[in-house]
Write a sequence for this structure.
């Protein structure tokens, strides 16, 4: 009997292992060439995205903020719990290979015509083991493994976004600090200009219109100071919210504290498969769909279940604590679907269609990632290209302010009035603020490129 059960079990297992025991493999026809368009830079296999965030962001104050954000983020802590939950589900799927055991003691009193009742009891230990469904069990386990990895990748995606958000707000604060400093110095200079214009009017070398224009210009800058201070408070509060802390001042450096990588390398597009959490999530969904197809195929094969019972009973004996009889039985059951093939075929077709949908989504995620890399690199190159132009603009406007102020003070030319001075000063302030905004744009674009390449997602 044991030999026959073994033969049946072995045959059922072989049948189910023909096509449903394969592991997921990445599609051979997946194309990654040209994903970055003409934006691929460098020949490194990994590129910028392979750097851990501590390597990329070297400002100690920013590093401390990122570390606090990762430790205190509610989303990160929730995902840590979800990872543990997924691991428990995986344990359950692994334990499905082990026979199940159960003990079910039973007791009974039986009496006829109110006579002294007979006492029956049975203490059976039963076991059941599914053998022929190994294909289903194995694919359920593999899918559970994919589920654990999906949760880990989801955590990487949250970490990546958190790191980038903290860094962007940090350097935004640095930009606002620099703009505030320039505006405060400009406001101080323009207050002095108002006093000078009043003195010139008193000396008969200027007029009330020039004084009014200088005062209006000064009021405009002072109003802008209030906007900048408000912007700083809002940015600090936004960062405190991310950190999970009440509003407080954020210790920070300057825009110059950002050390751009010596060489910007995008790496090869294939690196996106290892670095980008969203791309990895899309591939894991494809792997999960693959194991669903395997499970649907496994349902066509026989399912063998071996069960048995071992126990004792008193068999109605008056002796209650001493076993009257030992009992055991063994059962082997082989179930082959016959009349369910319509439903099973439909389930398999649905699983195959879902697998194809997951494959298309995976391919689309790669294309989207490549386009994002291209866009981020173009942004960075544009901001870097504007840097020298803005520097030249500031030099020219500085010369214009110096020249018009000198002409106005000396009153050499009647063609130079205070409106010319005002125009030159306003243009210079705007260019200086624009220069700071462009410096931030370079930093922000570098961070965006780092993020689009998968940077910031690596756990430490």
């Amino acid at each position: 009997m044991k030999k026959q059960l073994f033969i049946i079990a072995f045959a059922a297992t072989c049948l189910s292992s023909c096509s449903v025991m394969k592991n997921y493999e990445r599609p051979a026809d997946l194309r990654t060439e040209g994903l970055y368009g003409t934006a691929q830079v460098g020949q490194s296999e990994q590129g910028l995205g392979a750097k851990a965030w501590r390597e990329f962001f070297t400002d100690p104050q920013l590093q401390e903020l990122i570390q606090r954000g990762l430790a205190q983020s509610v989303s990160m802590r929730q995902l840590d719990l979800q990872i543990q939950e997924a691991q428990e589900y995986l344990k359950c799927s692994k334990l499905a290979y082990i026979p199940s055991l159960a003990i079910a003691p039973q007791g009974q009193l039986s009496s006829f015509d109110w006579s002294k009742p007979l006492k029956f009891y049975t203490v059976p230990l039963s076991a059941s083991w599914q053998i022929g469904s190994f294909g289903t069990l194995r694919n359920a386990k593999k899918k559970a493994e994919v589920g654990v990895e999906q949760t880990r990748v989801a955590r990487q995606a949250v970490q990546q976004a958190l790191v980038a958000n903290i860094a962007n707000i940090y350097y935004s604060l640095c930009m606002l600090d620099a703009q505030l400093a320039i505006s405060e110095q400009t406001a101080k200079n323009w207050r002095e200009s108002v006093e000078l214009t009043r003195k010139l009017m008193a000396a008969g070398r200027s007029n009330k219109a020039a004084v009014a224009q200088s005062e209006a210009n000064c009021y405009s800058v002072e109003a802008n100071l209030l906007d900048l201070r408000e912007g700083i408070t809002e940015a600090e509060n936004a960062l405190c919210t991310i950190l999970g802390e009440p509003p407080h001042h954020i210790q920070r450096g300057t825009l110059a504290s950002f050390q751009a990588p010596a060489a910007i390398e995008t790496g090869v597009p294939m690196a996106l498969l290892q670095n980008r959490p969203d791309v990895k999530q899309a591939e894991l969904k494809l792997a999960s769909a693959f194991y669903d197809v395997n499970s649907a195929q496994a349902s066509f094969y026989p399912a063998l279940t071996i069960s048995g019972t071992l126990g004792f009973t008193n068999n109605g004996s008056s002796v209650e604590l001493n076993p009257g009889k030992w009992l055991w039985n063994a059962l082997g059951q082989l179930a082959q679907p016959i009349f369910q093939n319509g439903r099973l075929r439909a389930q398999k077709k649905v699983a195959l269609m879902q697998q194809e949908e997951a494959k298309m989504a995976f391919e689309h995620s790669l294309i989207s990632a490549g386009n994002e890399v291209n866009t981020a690199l173009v942004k960075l190159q544009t901001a870097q290209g504007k840097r020298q132009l803005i520097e030249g603009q500031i030099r020219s406007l500085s010369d214009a302010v110096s020249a018009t102020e000198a002409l106005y003070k000396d009153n050499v030319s009647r063609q130079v009035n205070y409106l010319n001075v005002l125009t030159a000063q306003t243009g210079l302030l705007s260019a200086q603020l624009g220069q700071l905004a462009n410096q931030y744009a370079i930093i922000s674009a570098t961070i965006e490129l780092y993020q689009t390449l998968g940077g910031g997602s690596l756990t430490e």
About this structure: The chain has a mean pLDDT of 80. The chain is about 65% helix and 10% strand. The chain has one domain: 2-24+31-98+134-313+342-452.
